[in-house]
């Protein structure tokens, strides 16, 4: 019962936060002048007629209610205006088309980063203050300190340009599950993985190191358990309690993508589309993608909080 009330409360707060954020985005973006960057001709006339029909020149409040009505009752997120390849096309259809590459590179990077990061963290904790621990900790600090786009450029230079192991950019087309397509995604996948590997390794090492020095683990050893048994039965299980929610959040956020990485490796995903929409002042694309990223972030937070209660029965979310 406590959990049910807690979920309802968090879900209501999420919807309220989502509504406030999107209202602010709409008002601020509509205060900017509408710039239609199209060539003179028949296409420009058709586009201007669509802008007038959708009421883009009406007062902001009237535009806002009409925008909400179209989304809720018609599923219409608007049309592209300034990006030539998407001009006059429905925003939602374009978004659905460009979502798979973003999801795939994030799923691949998560599948690569999560087990490797956790294993490195466990290895460093079990070899605390030895040279193995120092090597892992140094690599982790380097990967955390270096920005992701720097790592991406280094990977692109050495793996793609210098050694020619992978192509410089992602292969065009929709055959996402072929070997050539997977190979062309690997530079972006690796660039997105290194930061996650370092984060999981540092977090796992810190949690496991603290548990290995706790009193209850010393009690388990005095009762006759071997070091391996005490680690596998008690230390690892308790160390995973704060780690698993972050893994869940990692897989929830696979939809969000990486704005910079997608731009560097020419991934035709929603991250690259978002940056292009901002630079082109394509308002409907900006609003739709802002709503998408906002919802993903808020949903990830709720799922992480709820997952604590399922992972560890001692935690009762919402109880007093």
Order of helices and strands: HHHHHHHHHHHH
* Count of DSSP-assigned helices: 12
The quaternary structure here is single chain
Separation of the first and last Cα atoms:
12 Å
- The overall pLDDT, averaged over residues, is 83
Strand content: under 5%
* Global structural class: mainly alpha
Count of individual beta strands: 0
- Compute the CA-based radius of gyration: 24 Å
**Low-pLDDT segments:** none
**Biggest sheet layout:** none
Instruction: Give helix % range.
Output: over 70%
Shape: flat
Structural description of this entry:
By secondary structure, this protein is mostly helical. The chain is 74% helix and 0% strand. The chain has 12 helices and no strands. It has helices at residues 2-30, 42-53, 60-74, 91-126, 131-145, 148-162, 179-212, 215-222, 227-252, 259-264, 270-280, 283-311. The two termini are 12 Å apart. The mean pLDDT is 83.
Summarize the entry for a quick read.
The chain has twelve helices and no strands. The protein has helices at residues 2-30, 42-53, 60-74, 91-126, 131-145, 148-162, 179-212, 215-222, 227-252, 259-264, 270-280, 283-311.
Any key phrases for this structure?
74% helix; 320 residues; flat
Task: Annotate the secondary structure layout.
Blueprint: H1 2-30, H2 42-53, H3 60-74, H4 91-126, H5 131-145, H6 148-162, H7 179-212, H8 215-222, H9 227-252, H10 259-264, H11 270-280, H12 283-311
């Amino acid at each position: 019962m406590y959990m049910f009330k807690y979920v309802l409360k968090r879900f209501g707060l999420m919807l309220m936060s989502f509504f406030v954020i999107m209202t602010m985005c709409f008002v601020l973006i509509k205060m900017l002048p509408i710039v239609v960057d199209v060539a003179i001709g028949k296409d420009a006339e058709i586009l201007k007629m669509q802008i007038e029909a959708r009421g883009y020149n009406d007062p902001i409040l009237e535009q806002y209610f009409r925008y909400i009505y179209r989304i809720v009752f018609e599923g219409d997120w608007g049309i592209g205006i300034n990006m030539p390849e998407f001009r006059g096309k429905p925003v939602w259809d374009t978004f659905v088309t460009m979502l798979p590459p973003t999801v795939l590179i994030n799923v691949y990077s998560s599948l690569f980063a999560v087990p490797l990061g956790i294993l490195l963290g466990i290895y460093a904790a079990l070899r605390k203050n030895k040279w193995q621990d120092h090597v892992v900790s140094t690599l982790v600090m380097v990967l955390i300190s270096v920005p992701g786009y720097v790592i991406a450029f280094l990977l692109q230079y050495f793996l793609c340009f210098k050694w020619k192991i992978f192509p410089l950019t992602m292969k065009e087309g929709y055959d996402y599950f072929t070997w050539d397509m997977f190979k062309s995604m690997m530079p972006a996948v690796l660039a997105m993985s290194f930061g996650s590997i370092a984060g999981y390794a540092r977090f796992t090492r810190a949690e496991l190191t603290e548990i290995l020095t706790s009193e209850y683990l010393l009690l388990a050893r005095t009762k006759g358990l071997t070091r391996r048994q005490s680690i596998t039965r008690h230390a690892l299980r308790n160390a995973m309690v704060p780690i698993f929610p972050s893994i869940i959040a990692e897989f929830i956020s696979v939809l969000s993508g990486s704005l910079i990485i997608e731009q560097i490796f020419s991934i035709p995903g929603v991250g690259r589309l978002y940056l292009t929409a901002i630079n082109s002042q394509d308002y409907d694309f900006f609003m739709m993608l802002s709503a998408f990223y906002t919802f993903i972030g808020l949903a990830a937070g709720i799922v992480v909080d709820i997952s604590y209660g399922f992972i560890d029965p001692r935690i009762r979310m919402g109880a007093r």
